[in-house]
Amino acid sequence: MRVLQLCHKTPYPPSDGGSIAMHQITEGLLEKGFSVKVLALDPSRKKNGQKVIPDPYFSRTRFESHPVDTRVKPLDAFLNLFTKNSYNLQRFYDRKVEKRLEQILKEETFDIIQLEGLYLTPYIPVIRQNSGASLLYRSHNIEHFIWERMAAACANPLKKRYLKLLAARLRKFEMEVIHKVDGLVAISPIDLEFFNRHGFSRPSSVIPAGMPPFDLPSSLPQAEPNTVFHLGSMDWRPNQEGVEWFLEKVWPLVIREKPELRFFLAGKSMPERFYRYESDTVQVVGQVPDALEFILSKKVMVVPLLSGGGMRVKIVEGMAAKKVIVSTVIGAEGIECRHKENILVAANAREMAENILLCFDQAEVAEKIGENAREFAVKNYAMQPIMDNLMKFYKGFYSD
Q: Which CATH class is domain 2-210+382-395?
């Protein structure tokens, strides 16, 4: 079976939740003997981004990346107000990418074309005009949820109104586009239930992001005492929003009770403004060379999301590393975990602070939650059964 995988950003190296989720599918398909071509947008705008991709990944996937300038431009954003289009999606459309995609589809035949996320859907018309392949949409998030939640949390009246407009346009497009594909690959049961409730009746399947394929060492390295951390891609607006809320509303409550604790903020593309939070109890690390090594070196992982959708791959990664994770309700969405069994979930700043303090006041309880988390991740998010389910779904669109 021949698969064209279209990615909204470069999936290699798999360093954040989105790239991990895409890369796992690529690797799984290759292991199953599929022919896979990866075509990715590159928001970093690197003209020769594919040249830094090493073999064998580069040659096995016949990888291509194409620079796309997705930066928010004030003039473009203003002019978009006078249209009915979604500015969120408009930023990911590029005429040169469309022409290259058209060329590929005329030169090659594919059985399945998988769109990795909503931001690839502006290319549906050129796909339909040039290919008879089954077109599948992999929903990484329900995107308009993110913008609706950001609008709800925004205090600035003008910005709030603008975010509401963006969310409304994105919702309209998202509800229309699901009826333009042949099948839906949802990343969580919550997402699939939402689309079904809004009229999606074509073939669908829940294919979550899996556990990163690593085995823990028989003797885990000793984590630094009194440490709390967050690890996530800091060019994603929900992460920025959530971390700011955590540092301003949650962390002061924590260190008032335990001033000896230290918080480490790590992730790629760290905005400069976060360095102003550095203090005796806060260290901004930025991008780390080895995510697993960093996770294992710290005690308690926090996921303070206030908006978002889909599922947080970093939670599964943290669980697989036997970490006790303290998350907001939204952060834990899409993962069928249980409070105080394999995760700690908080509904507000006070509860999040209390859950963090519990991890240090009741170390045995925290350790047990971490052990349960590892067991939960291995049982529910191992890649082999996930890929088996995807294969079964694909076979519904293809026969020898």
A: alpha beta
3-state secondary structure of 151: helix
Which is nearest to 137 in space by CA: 60, 210, 194, 202? 202
At 28, list the tokens. 């799984």
The CA-based angle 150-151-156, given to 5 degrees, is 110
Instruction: Look at residues 173, 181, 117, 123 and name the one whose alpha carbon lies nearest to residue 144.
Output: 173
- Which CATH topology does 227-381 take? Rossmann fold (3.40.50)
Distance of alpha carbon 150 from its chain centroid, rounded?
17
390 contacts 202 by C-beta, under 8 angstroms: no
Tokens of 251: 């962390």
Query: What does the pLDDT profile of the chain (400 residues) look like in tens digits?
Result: 999 999 999 998 887 888 888 999 999 999 999 999 999 999 865 554 555 688 899 999 999 999 998 887 777 766 777 777 787 788 889 999 999 999 999 999 999 999 999 999 999 999 999 999 999 999 988 888 888 888 887 888 988 998 899 889 889 888 898 999 999 999 988 889 989 998 999 999 999 988 765 666 666 678 999 999 999 999 888 999 999 999 999 999 999 999 999 999 999 889 999 999 999 999 999 999 988 899 999 999 999 999 876 788 889 999 999 999 999 999 998 899 999 999 999 999 999 999 999 999 999 999 999 999 999 999 999 888 999 999 999 999 876 5
Q: How far apart are CA 386 and CA 224, in angstroms?
A: 34
2-210+382-395 and 227-381: same fold?
A: yes
Enumerate the domain spans of the chain.
Answer: 2-210+382-395, 227-381
